[in-house]
Structure formats: structure tokens, C-alpha cells
Amino acid sequence: MTHVSLALAVLASGAAASLLAAKRRRTGLRIGMAAAGMAGVLCVLGGWNVLRGGETTRLAAEWPLALGGARLAVDGLSAWFLLVIGAVGVGASVYSWDYFDDADGYGPNGAYAPLFCTLIAAMVLVVCAADAVLFLVGWELMSVSAFFLVGFHDQDGEARRGAWTYLVATHLGTALGVVPVFAVFVARTGGTSIDGFRGAVGASEVAWCVVLFTLGVVGFGTKAGFMPFHVWLPAAHPVAPSPVSALMSGAVIKTGIYGLLRLVSWLPDLPAGCAVGLMIVSLVTGVMGILYALGQRQVKRMLAYSSVENIGIIGLAISVALLGRSLNRPELVAVGLGGALLHVLNHGLFKGLLFLSAGAVLHDTGTGDMERLGGLARRTPWNALAFLVGAVAICGLPPLNGFVSEFAIYTGILQGVVRLPNSYAALPASCAAALALIGGLALVAFSKTFSVMFLGARRDPSLTVHDTPPFMLAGMLILAAACVTGALGSGALVAAVSAALTPFAMEASGKTDTIAVALEPIGRLLRPLGVLIVVTIGLLVVRRRMAPGAAVGGAGGTWGCGYAFPARTMQYTGSSYGWKVMRCFRFVLRPLRRAPSLSTCFPMPGRLSTVTRDFAHERVYSPMFTWLARLFERLLPLQHGRIQLYLVYIVATVLIVFLVEGWTAPFSARPRNGAAMPGAAPSTGDDSIERGARGGMDQDG
Fold this sequence. Notes:
Blueprint: H1 2-20, H2 25-53, E1 57-62, E2 69-74, H3 76-99, H4 112-128, H5 132-150, H6 157-189, H7 206-224, H8 232-236, H9 242-266, H10 272-294, H11 299-326, H12 330-365, H13 376-379, H14 381-394, H15 401-419, H16 422-454, H17 470-488, H18 490-500, H19 511-546, H20 574-584, H21 586-589, E3 592-594, E4 609-611, H22 615-635, H23 643-669, H24 687-700
Antiparallel strand pairs: 1-2, 3-4
Helix pairs in contact: 1-2, 1-4, 2-3, 2-4, 2-18, 3-4, 3-9, 3-12, 3-17, 3-18, 4-5, 4-9, 5-6, 5-9, 6-7, 7-9, 9-12, 10-11, 10-16, 11-12, 11-15, 11-16, 12-14, 12-15, 12-17, 12-18, 12-19, 14-16, 14-17, 15-16, 15-17, 15-19, 16-20, 18-19
């Protein structure tokens, strides 16, 4: 707990110091990012110490308002998410030192560093809060600070739209899911301490369990990005500064997974229908997320949909664990939750790396449109290497960390196929098929992205490419090294995952052994693959030194299909690369394809374009909010410029609040379990005599 409290103090000091140095923007940015990096290191150290020790650490302080105490607690689950927040925070903070360039109009302002530190501190509060009020304070602080960071380039209309979309979505999820969940537990326990929430709902109260779990999926799933609550991710991630996008995709959306897992740890064994429902939602989220990613031409928007896909993979692992918990299969619970937590950490690392690399492309070229790029590996080889590491990891290919977590999830799913009754075996079998489909589509999507951006020739000769600044490269290399370390050190993570499962009240015996058996084949595979990679890199280095000017395809170049002078436009585009796959799913995606018509002997030049629209946004949310806006414009014309009507609205709101408070006051003041009212005189034992006398007087009267 010392590391966590020190990290919060460093973040608060960094935010305050950067505000004081707001007039010297570059100095304020460096101070704030140094504080964020130090806090990230402290979070990693504190989380790892708790995971190695396996004990919960606590810190209590008096809350300045009449809402109870501000209590922090770091158990295994909190410590695991501290690793994610700290690791991604370190990479993003180092990257931010050189990301902003005043010459390009993207210079830092005095608010970036304080908001960045506030966002990290809010996430730390969320995962370490031992009090419901403190959790909600951190949750709201995280939403507001992320809103201002997403809209950092407020002169851009798309940035303002993405920021407001995020704010509306996260507050709807909070109002409709998170707050009702905490309200039920606070009402059941009579206090705000999270320690008492476990057991507040009994195993016999099946209806309450289902309702609370559904509310949790809606509330926390909106923050995580489950479909159909995902619409804010492709709107907010592309317009935010790239280090903010990395932090949000790598850590912020994981707080939604943390909230869902924490809720599951409070509830008793849920019915199998809850696991099936989450499994269906996760399956749709994973498959549709990667399909939408395949149809994008903006690289950061493509990565945003890929984050939705990986949230679906995590949800599949959690649903397998819930199914094992419902059917009394603890080995499925251990492997399912272990795989989910491993993928939470690994996705935070490689998705943060990919967003930072995409930000470097945007910084170096001025565009994130993949169809205009190409050949960047020659000018920015280190950035190409960083993106390649992230792409291999996110596709679940060995020997990087994505392979480790997806292998663990596959193991849990296949164990469910073998060990569950025949009536339930089809469910994990469908999950295995969906996970295989997702992996294949991810390979197509990221091979397209890497090849179109970094290989071939530059498609738009008007683009000028700059070198990537050193601190941006350092931030990317930190996360790339973490991806490699997470794979090679998978044995050390097994015990850490076992400690992270402690809040789920599982038996200690068998947890570590189950996960260790599941991950044992990975160790045997990673060692020879690691040697193969080292040998391959060594051969490439030797070849480059022996023939530094030789082309990859030989002295004659690549065969041009009979053309003597191949043009830049003869390369594959991203749309043409993925069109064959998208056609197979056109009944779901419904892509728009605009092809030129050849109606004459000498047709005019034309262009082929494809557009993939998000069904949830285009057909559900956009029409719904448009209809609501028109309805409220007719019923409540609020923006009319009449001050007297504004005063009427304010007075009416205050009166309604007073009426509700007055109506609920007698119920809230009613004593529980026969306890005396606060301030009442102590009982003398003659209450029955007094009541009898009063009753007699009333009768005589």
C-alpha cells in the first residue's frame, strides 16, 4: 500500500506542479509526464509485491465529507490491474515527451499534463477503492478527465463529437448500471464499505443475482466496450492524442472488466443462463469487432474496433469461468479467469504499443489514412519493428505474449468441451470456433495494416515523412520489450494470476497447479521459438552487413507482371486486400461498394471505394438520439433565451427535490431492528405501561 499511496501523492504533486508551470508549456509537460512515469513504476512495483505476497494491504483515511471513510485496499485482483495501469502509463508518459510539436499546431497546453495525471490517479482509485463512494468518485473523475483529453484538439469538430459521444455513453452506463448496482449493495448492507458486499445477496435470491449481473454487464460493459455499447470507442480513440488513445484502450476500458469481475466476486454462484448470455454477447463483440476493423482505412479507428474484438475475447474467457462456477467445475473457473486476466494484461501492452506506433505514423506523415501510406519501413524502421511486434502479439502468434493468453483461453474452452455435461459442451465448442475465426480475421486485418503502411512504395508522393523523435521511440520500445518479457516470463505470471484469483473465494489448492498445467506446453514452445527468432535476427544482421545495398527481391526487383515501368497505383490497397473476406460476411456488414461504370469505349477515370458502416451507430443510436432531440425540442424548449423561464425551471427543480426528500425522510429515519432513533431518550423498561395508560386514556376519551 506504500507504493500506491506514494503513486497517488506523486500524481497529485505532478498535476499541481504542471499547473504552476502552465505558462512554460514544455516545462509543465515534462514535469507532469515525469510524475506520471514515476507513478506508473510505483504501481507496477506495488502490484507485483502484493501478487508475490498474496496478502491484502489496506489504507484508511478520514473522508472530509459526511460520507464515511476513504478506504483503499489492494488485493490480488486490484494488484493485477495496477500492473496494467502502471505499465501502459509508463510507456504513454515517456512517449508524450516528444509527441507534441508546436510547429505542427499540436503543441501542449497547460491542461494536458494535469489531466493525464488525473486520469491515471482516477484509475488507481477505482481499482483500489474499498468504499463505494470512493469508487464512484474515482469512476466519475476518470470519465471527466478522459473527456477533456479526448477533446484535446477542440478546434476539430470530430474531436468534439468523439469527446461528447464518450461522455454521454459513459454516463448512461453509469446511471443505468453502475449506480443501481452499488445502490442495491449499500441498501442491503447498510454501509458503503465494499468489504461487506460479499454475501449481501444470498444464493437463494436468484432473481436479484440475475438483475445485478445484467446491470453490471450494461454499466461496466459500456466502459469496456461490449457490443452494442461500443459506439464511443471508434468515435473517441481516433481523435484523441495517441498517448491518450493508448492509455484509454490499454487501461481505461480494462476498468470496466475490473468492475465486472469485482461484481462477480460479490455474487454467489450465478445460474448458467448468465454465463450463456455473456457468452453470446462476447461472441458477437469479438467477431463483429474484428470484421469492422477489417473494413476501416483509418489506422486508429481500425485499432479501436480491434479493442472491441479483444474485449470480446476476454468476455468469452469470463463466460467459460462463470459456466464452470455454475456447474461446480473449479478447474474451469481457474483457467477461464486466469486466461481472462492474462489477456487483460497482454492486451494492455500490445494495444498500447500499436496505438503509440500509429501515433508515430500520424506524427511523421500527417495522416492516418492507410490508403495514402506505404514504404514507411525504409524511413522509420524502428517504428515498423514496433508495429510488427504489436501486430504479431495481437494476432496470438508465438512467441509473444498474445500467444500465451490466447493459448490459456483455448485451454479453458477445450477443457469445458471435455469436462462439461453433453447438454453444455456445445457452448464452449462454439466459443472455440469463434475464437479461431477471430484469430484468422485478426491475422488478415493486421497483415493488411502493416503491409499497406510500411511495405511497398509510397502511394501518395505528396506526403513528407519525418523521423520519429527519440522519446516516442523509447515509449514504444518499453511496451515492445514488455510484450517479449510477458511471453518469456510466463512462468512467473502463473503464480501472480493465482494470487489475483483470491477474491473469488476459490480453494487455494489446485489453482496454481491448474493454470500451470495449462501453460506448461507454452514454455516448451517458447524456448525453441525464442532461439529461432534470435538466429533469424542474427542472419538478417549479417546479411545486411555483407550486402548493405541489396534489395530484398534481388538486383532486378520484384516481377511487375509484364509491365516495364510499374506505377505506384499498381499496389494492393487496403480495401482490395480485405474485400474478399468482407464479401463473405456482406450479409452482416452490408458494406457499400462504389465502382466506376464502364459505359463507353473510352471511359473517364474513376475510383473504387468501399465503406463499412457500424450497424449499432447508424441504425440504433443515431436515429434514437435524433428522435429524442426533436421530442425534447418540442416538449421542453429550453434554449430560448428567456431568463425568467430559466428561473422557473430552477425553482421547479428545487421544489421537486424538496418534495422527494420530504416524502422519503420518514422512511429513511425509521429505526432498523428495533433500534432507538438517534437522539432519543434511552428506554427505561416502562414503555409498555406508558403505552397501556395512553391506550386507556384514548379509550376513555
